[in-house]
Design goal:
Shape: globular
Structural class: alpha/beta
Strand content: 25-35%
Strand order of the largest sheet: 5-4-1-8-9-10-11-12-13
Number of strands: 13
Oligomer: single chain
């Protein structure tokens, strides 16, 4: 292990995506013929880490995979993309996280996720990865692992004056209030913001109000993404939120992983 500095360290999930494409989604108890199958590398944390690496950032991943075929392939995939893997752990107690995904010709999908080894990432692994957390410029966390592990990682980063970015996905309604205070940047989409605030977030104006509510809970800044409507950003308590527009693009398949 080394105490080299990283631009981005991600503490989060790895999921092997088992993708099947079929004309339609099967009914309960039904077997249908599909027309394409492939295996991909997914997981919210790993996707964020790989994207950062592909954009030129020096990245490290803190995660857990199984001692199985998928786990070995996942570690090699990180290496192939230039991600530092000293803090990628393997366990015999659970399989590598996996998602079974069926996509129909209309782009609709049905997904079953088994978190597996992701849920075994805990405090012991975080302390072992302290060099990657404390020497990073930015730490990124999500909720596809144990929430308490993500919260502990955010706290460790702040204690070492590392900027924290927290993506509360998949969202949980009873999110620990400490997550807000541990987030220098709190980044969520409209549905997550709606679940967390209890108010509709269907347009830019509603996102403005939601961002102010989230900021009051202790975040350093808030970003609410709105798909084709762009995003709303507010940087400090008492400041007005800003709408950042984007160019709309057609969605082909939202389940395709980037890794």
């Amino acid at each position: 292990m080394t105490e080299e500095a990283f631009d981005v360290t991600v503490v989060g999930s790895c999921m092997t995506d088992l993708m099947s494409q079929a004309p339609r989604l099967p009914k309960a108890g039904e077997t249908i013929h599909g027309h394409k199958f492939f295996i991909g590398f997914g997981g919210k944390g790993a996707n964020q880490c790989i994207q950062a690496a592909r954009l030129g950032a020096k990245t490290a991943m803190v995660c857990k995979v199984g001692k199985d075929f998928f786990g070995e392939n996942y570690i090699q995939n990180f290496k192939d993309n230039g991600v530092h893997t000293d803090f990628v752990g393997q366990t015999s107690d659970a399989a590598t996280g996996a998602a079974s995904i069926i996509v129909n010709d209309a782009g609709e999908n049905a997904i079953v996720i088994v978190a597996g080894a992701n849920m075994l990432l805990g405090g012991e692994e975080l302390w072992g990865a302290l060099p990657a957390v404390s020497c990073a410029k930015v730490l990124v966390c999500q909720l596809e692992i144990s929430p308490q592990t993500s919260l502990q990682a955010l706290r460790m980063a702040q204690e070492n004056k590392v900027k924290t970015i927290f993506n509360p996905a998949p969202a949980i309604a009873d999110l620990d209030a400490d997550f807000y205070r541990a987030s220098d940047v709190f980044c969520c989409n409209e549905s997550e913001a709606e679940l967390l605030t209890g108010s509709s977030v269907a347009n830019v104006e509603e996102a403005h109000r939601a961002s102010q509510e989230l900021l009051k809970r202790g975040c350093g800044s808030v970003i609410i993404t709105l798909g084709p409507q762009g995003c709303v950003v507010v940087k400090a308590q008492g400041s007005s939120s800003k709408h950042v527009q984007t160019t709309a693009v057609p969605a082909v398949d939202t389940t395709v992983s980037v890794t």
